[in-house]
């Protein structure tokens, strides 16, 4: 009984502190060694627990919740390879700066490395991909405050500085079942550990004045906003751009393309414009001021690499070195929103109009008209995005798969006054766990649509189980080109003898059977009118609604190149394409 009392107080105080520190959701995968954590989470009134049978999918589901809500979510699993299945989602969380609390149950120390069943070495098993790691002490009498301190610190480490996952490896001896009838559990007379207080990093006024003078002396500036999670940045950065009189190249994950903020300086079609080597040469900027991570666009990356003799400034909240283009930037580690506000006050009020900004605006409008031109072609990825963006209801999440879908969103998702939150897993850019992450993002109650390819859909079909189990509505648009379409743009496509087997990888599956297995509706559309009608129907359905567009993989390269070519021709020579 002494062991059970120590175990129970240790775990109840640990879980209670997680809740007090702001953890509202815990995703549990069933197992024996994790019994103390799982049962305690289920008993706590301040935590909603979710049960997922597959640890790999469970971790991505939690990632989706944490990504959409920008709050830490905990995941719990038993010992052994269950923990190893968390690895892909933890890597993604690390690189995309998403707070996860990873709680892996373990054998006690005397059962490690002795051939005990379901025991692997779990110490530091996620390596550098966690912001903080602790091999927790075994539950003993008097260690409940230690458990609280570790829980509190786990939350702070996951959200302090650059957000990310933390890992607590928690060994338990048998018996494993807590006794919730004991006195002194949960909180009682003990005061929970208060949340840490943190301020925002401001720049020295002298440096602000120096930057203002430097930028004001140059007309051909560009602001670039990539994927970020900085609250309030959109309004601040558009105000700064207005005072400077410069364009804002807005990645689809920047949040700048959707919402009611000022969009006069927003350039959505910079990827299509910079596909042209001629325009890349002509559009040399005096400086580039970037917020957030590197944009999706490869054309932008090529453009940036051309100019080593310009000022290149990268603003990030905390110390980091996110510059894969190999240039020599000046890093500014300060709160991005406050940085914009500090700099804006140094300029005269009003919107500055410049020839440079006007040129970008005209090119952007020309490109937009051509990209949105009503399709005469059969079903294609580009206009699938156009019609989808028009159909999305106010207050939606649009979760986008990697490879071609995110690039088509970059090219074809234009500015809108609607509140649309575009999400994706761009930390490690993988195709695994996309379905599960999207379903996790839908937990908030926002209408959620997932756009992805057939290989990504196949890779995470079992993720649909959570949508069925918890009645989470989800619209899924599957672009089915029967394989890995993005490889058709790479040099490997010229190797006909091996291309289809090694890179094309057709899946040759009828997805309707899988969708029905999870209780969903499946619609395979063949015309644009069928597609638009299915999109409208999906928004009224309170379940899984899968819309499948069958696209020719052999035609889609020509479709994209024709679009980009028409933009180049129109901008350089005045043709309407």
UniProtKB/TrEMBL annotation:
Residues 11-125 form the Thiamine pyrophosphate enzyme N-terminal TPP-binding domain. This is 2-succinyl-5-enolpyruvyl-6-hydroxy-3-cyclohexene-1-carboxylate synthase. Catalyzes the thiamine diphosphate-dependent decarboxylation of 2-oxoglutarate and the subsequent addition of the resulting succinic semialdehyde-thiamine pyrophosphate anion to isochorismate to yield 2-succinyl-5-enolpyruvyl-6-hydroxy-3-cyclohexene-1-carboxylate (SEPHCHC). Binds 1 thiamine pyrophosphate per subunit. Residues 434-548 form the Thiamine pyrophosphate enzyme TPP-binding domain. It comes from the Bacteria. Homodimer. GO terms for biological process: menaquinone biosynthetic process. The keyword Manganese applies. Belongs to the TPP enzyme family. MenD subfamily. It holds the Pfam family TPP_enzyme_N. InterPro entries: DHS-like_NAD/FAD-binding_dom, MenaQ_synth_MenD, MenD_middle, THDP-binding, Thiamin_PyroP_enz_TPP-bd_dom, TPP_enzyme_TPP-bd. Residues 214-400 form the Menaquinone biosynthesis protein MenD middle domain. It catalyses: isochorismate + 2-oxoglutarate + H(+) = 5-enolpyruvoyl-6-hydroxy-2-succinyl-cyclohex-3-ene-1-carboxylate + CO2. Gene3D superfamilies: 3.40.50.970, TPP-binding domain (3.40.50.1220). Its EC number is 2.2.1.9.
